[in-house]
Design goal:
Blueprint (H helix, E strand, L loop, with lengths): L13 H17 L5 E14 L2 E4 L9 H8 L3 E4 L2 E10 L5 E16 L15 H29 L4 H20 L1
Antiparallel strand pairs: 1-2, 1-5, 3-4, 4-5
């Protein structure tokens, strides 16, 4: 028996799974969303080498630059508008030693209210034309899934060419009936 076109059976339904994700996206975009809120953030990064930075994760929950500095107070010194780590150092490619420098950024972004769980993490305002293309994509993917599975069965030697053509026609007709419901 031949191998067919799929490495294993998990790949057989990938087109159907993609079609289902698009269907869920269409469904999700039709639902009303809760209002968004403005979220203030403070991002603290530390330079750990030439062009290398690492995020100081625990500092994400800070409400202000001043709070971040207060949290870092036992580890930093401020000189000429720069914030340096008291202990951490790095060496450049010429062998020069540098103190690690902190960079604190404040900003705001829009986010959904707590508890909102959706497929879309942004606020899509898709036109009817775009939604129609989504529906077309679902149809094409589902047809493609049928074709791929029928070709796989033929390539594996599980179906004859006559059976291939008969089953392909039958499966496509069933899909068309399902789409018309």
């Amino acid at each position: 028996m031949n191998e067919g076109i799929f490495e294993d059976e998990r790949h057989q339904d990938i087109l159907e799974m993609t079609a289902e994700e698009i269907r869920l996206l269409i469904e999700e975009t039709a639902k009303p969303r809760p209002p968004k809120k403005t979220v203030h953030f403070v991002r603290v990064e530390m330079q750990t080498g030439e062009g290398r930075f690492s995020v100081v994760n625990w500092a994400f929950r800070c409400d202000s630059t001043e709070e971040a500095k207060r949290r870092l107070r036992h580890h930093i010194t401020e000189e000429n508008g720069h914030i340096y780590d008291l202990y951490e150092k790095w060496t450049d490619s010429d062998g020069n030693e540098h103190r690690c420098e902190y960079f604190i950024t404040e900003g705001e972004y829009e986010d959904w209210e707590e508890g909102y769980e959706g497929v879309c993490n942004y606020d899509p305002d898709y036109s009817q034309e775009t939604i129609a293309k989504f529906h077309k994509a679902i149809k094409v993917l589902r047809e493609g899934n049928i074709y791929a599975q029928r070709i796989d069965r033929l390539a594996r030697g599980l179906d004859s060419e006559d059976t291939f053509h008969e089953q392909l026609k039958s499966d496509l007709e069933k899909l068309k009936q399902k789409d018309n419901e």
